[in-house]
């Protein structure tokens, strides 16, 4: 617990807690959608939906070209690590051989490109990478909330649904 000041007059107590009921980041509107090729995953989709004879189907090929879809790699040994395929990662090569997949799924933008915000392919890659960091945190149970109370125990503010290894409040936490 941490003590901090609000309005420079009042000390408060901040309680940070694990929130096990956080929704998948794929369930948000105007968001990326992850399709895993692992039948044990909640987001499973058959690779046949995206590939024919080892090549991306036309719709996926077009999305890959403009940065509204990316092929994903995944490392799972205890926790998981999702990343854009062919990106560097901090997993030793020997461990990757046993627990990594170079083509583990597909990440697609399900809404219009106007809702994506990022315009260039490089910016879209960065946006997708940021989403995968959040998704990986959610998969690994790095989900939190916080409550703020005065020294007298009066509730001041609170928020759950935070998906991150570093606690960054969601947009709704700072609505006032």
Written account of the structure:
It is a single chain. It contains 3 helices and 10 strands. The longest helix is centred in the last third of the chain and has 19 residues, at 121-139. The chain has 2 domains: 2-20 and 145-174, no CATH class; 25-139, no CATH class. The chain has helices spanning 58-66, 93-99, 121-139; strands at residues 2-6, 10-18, 32-36, 51-52, 55-56, 69-77, 79-84, 100-109, 143-150, 155-163. It is globular. The chain is an alpha+beta fold and 176 residues long. Strands 1-2-9-10 form a 4-stranded antiparallel sheet. A 4-stranded antiparallel sheet has the order 3-8-6-7. Strands 4-5 form a two-stranded antiparallel sheet. The model is unreliable at 1-5 (pLDDT under 50). β4 and β5 (55-56) form a beta hairpin. Helix content is 20%, strand content 37%.
Summarize the structure.
This protein is an alpha+beta fold and 176 residues long. It has three helices and ten strands, in the order βββββαββαβαββ. A hairpin with a 4-residue loop joins strand 9 (143-150) and strand 10.
The low-confidence parts are 1-5
Distance between the termini: 23 Å
Estimate percent helicity. Answer: 10-25%
Number of domains: 2
The count of helical stretches stands at 3
The general outline is: globular
Strand order of the largest sheet: 1-2-9-10
Strand segment tally:
10
Biggest sheet layout: 4 strands, antiparallel
Strand content: 35-45%
**Derived structural class:** alpha+beta
**What is the alpha-carbon Rg in Å?**
19 Å
> What is the overall pLDDT average?
84
Question: Element order, helices and strands?
Answer: EEEEEHEEHEHEE
């Amino acid at each position: 617990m941490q003590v901090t000041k609000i309005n420079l007059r009042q000390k408060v107590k901040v309680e940070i807690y694990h929130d096990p009921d956080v929704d998948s980041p794929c369930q948000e509107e105007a968001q990326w959608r992850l399709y895993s090729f692992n039948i044990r995953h909640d987001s499973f989709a058959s690779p046949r939906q995206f590939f024919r004879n080892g090549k991306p189907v036309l719709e996926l090929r077009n999305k890959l070209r403009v940065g509204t879809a990316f092929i994903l790699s995944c490392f799972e040994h205890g926790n998981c690590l999702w990343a854009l395929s062919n990106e560097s990662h901090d997993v030793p090569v020997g461990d990757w051989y046993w627990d990594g997949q170079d083509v583990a799924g597909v990440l697609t933008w399900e809404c219009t490109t106007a809702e994506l915000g990022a315009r260039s392919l490089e910016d879209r890659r960065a946006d997708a990478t940021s989403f995968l960091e959040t998704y990986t945190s959610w998969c690994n149970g790095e989900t939190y909330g916080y409550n703020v109370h005065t020294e007298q125990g009066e509730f001041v503010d609170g928020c759950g649904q935070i998906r991150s290894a570093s606690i960054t409040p969601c947009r709704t936490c700072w609505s006032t």
